[in-house]
């Protein structure tokens, strides 16, 4: 993680949001500091957030979106501490490498309020948000504003058919949108010096081809940083360039040209923002908003094979249908057995074909999983809740339950 403390840069309230990497050649944020209002008002056209808290920045963005005059343009620029941000209608179990995320202990995933795909934020990534009246909103035109800003930095960029900014065939920026009755916004990321290896680790997931979701899947694309094309590009330079192009595009003059700097402390008394900051990290929003999905998986064990079909909606398990059989002649029963061999072993096999004790336990496991939070179940909890059965089947039951819990936790 880039350092968040600058001993050589003044203005303590501003410096905590800037990394040492950006201390040099950075435009002077101090010239805007006297224009800060407490509490902030949605009357301005350009905002720069000093906060690097993703829950605050997304809540503040939504507050502006709901309260800015419907006929006026608005620009918000900010950076976040390391986090993974998923789209409003996405499935975190399919989009995010959750084991790697948990292992980091400091990087959360955040479900934003707009659509689009999954992205990684850190202090090497600058976020822009352009709000307009719905009647004049054109995502291609807003992309052109950002494109002109990048080109003004000396980088030969283009816009692809998804309105992402690219250099050659590689993306340096992704976009998402939100449209309501009178307003719309285009917000996105600009990779300047982000840690691409961390991005790759957190967003690289097993294909989970058999997880069928009603949500929106991300379109995977190769990405690069602007600094890989021009070393001297900084966060400050990009911010200045975007503000310049935004002013030109929307003819901002006089008071409309002033920049409003924002701190979290200024918003302590704004109930809407405080509610948003509490809601975004909650289970009900982060996981409970997950669209319905079905996950069908196979596994082989030393004692036989298993198939599970799990249905979940809003993060709750609706059903788990299990099919377990003993070893079939000619079938690989090691843990690494192929999907093809597993499927072949399970053709025509039902729970009825098992001996009675194990069949009864499987039905109990199905019933115990129903209604629970997907991915928030411990194997010990399930095993301790099962009745007493034939001891010769204990190992098979433990294997089965551990497998189910682990696959839902990944």
From TrEMBL:
Pathways per UniProt: Protein modification; protein lipoylation via exogenous pathway; protein N(6)-(lipoyl)lysine from lipoate: step 2/2
Which cellular component terms (GO) are annotated to the entry? mitochondrion
Q: Which residues form the BPL/LPL catalytic domain?
A: 69-254
GO terms (BP aspect): protein lipoylation
Q: What Gene3D superfamilies does this protein map onto?
A: Bira Bifunctional Protein, Domain 2 (3.30.930.10), CO dehydrogenase flavoprotein, C-terminal domain (3.30.390.50)
User: Which Pfam families does the record associate with it?
Assistant: LplA-B_cat
Q: List, alphabetically, the PROSITE patterns matched.
A: BPL_LPL_CATALYTIC
Give the GO molecular function terms.
lipoyltransferase activity
Name the domain of life this protein comes from: Eukaryota
Function, in words: Catalyzes both the ATP-dependent activation of exogenously supplied lipoate to lipoyl-AMP and the transfer of the activated lipoyl onto the lipoyl domains of lipoate-dependent enzymes.
The similarity annotation says: Belongs to the LplA family.
Question: What is the name listed in the Swiss-Prot or TrEMBL entry for this protein?
Answer: Putative lipoate-protein ligase A
Q: Which organism is it from?
A: Lentinula raphanica
């Amino acid at each position: 993680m880039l350092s968040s403390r600058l001993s050589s840069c003044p203005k303590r309230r501003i410096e905590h949001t800037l990394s040492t990497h950006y201390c040099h050649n950075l435009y002077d944020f101090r010239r805007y500091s006297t224009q800060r209002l407490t509490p902030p008002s949605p009357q301005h056209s350009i905002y720069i957030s000093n906060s690097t808290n993703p829950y605050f920045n997304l809540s503040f963005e939504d507050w502006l979106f709901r309260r800015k005059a419907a006929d006026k343009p608005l620009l918000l620029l900010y950076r976040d501490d390391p986090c993974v941000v998923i789209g409003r209608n996405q499935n975190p179990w399919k989009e995010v490498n959750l084991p790697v995320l948990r292992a980091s202990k400091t990087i959360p995933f955040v479900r934003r309020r707009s659509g689009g795909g999954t992205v990684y934020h850190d202090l090497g990534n600058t976020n822009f948000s352009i709000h307009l009246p719905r009647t004049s909103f054109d995502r291609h035109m807003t992309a052109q504003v950002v494109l002109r800003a990048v080109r003004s930095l000396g980088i030969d960029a283009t816009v692809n058919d998804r309105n992402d900014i690219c250099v050659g065939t590689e993306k340096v920026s992704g976009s998402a949108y939100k449209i309501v009755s009178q307003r719309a916004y285009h917000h996105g990321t600009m990779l300047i010096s982000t840690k691409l290896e961390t991005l790759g680790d957190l967003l690289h997931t097993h294909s989970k081809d058999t997880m069928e979701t009603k949500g929106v899947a991300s379109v995977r694309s190769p990405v690069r940083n602007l600094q890989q094309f021009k070393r001297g590009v900084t966060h400050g330079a990009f911010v200045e360039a975007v503000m310049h192009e935004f002013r030109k595009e929307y003819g901002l003059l006089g008071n409309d040209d002033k920049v409003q700097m924002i701190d979290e402390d200024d918003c302590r008394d704004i109930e809407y923002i405080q509610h948003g900051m509490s809601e975004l990290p909650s289970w009900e929003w982060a996981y409970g908003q997950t669209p319905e999905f079905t996950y069908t998986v196979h596994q082989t064990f030393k004692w036989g094979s298993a198939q599970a079909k799990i249905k979940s909606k809003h993060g709750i398990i609706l059903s788990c249908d299990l099919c377990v059989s003993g070893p079939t002649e000619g079938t690989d029963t090691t843990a690494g057995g192929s999907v093809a061999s597993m499927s072949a072993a399970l053709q025509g096999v039902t729970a009825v074909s098992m001996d009675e004790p194990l069949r009864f336990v499987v039905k109990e496991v199905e019933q115990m999983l129903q209604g629970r939070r997907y991915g928030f179940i411990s194997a010990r909890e399930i095993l301790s809740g099962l009745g007493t059965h034939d001891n010769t089947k204990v190992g098979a039951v433990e294997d089965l339950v551990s497998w189910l819990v682990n696959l839902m936790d990944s």
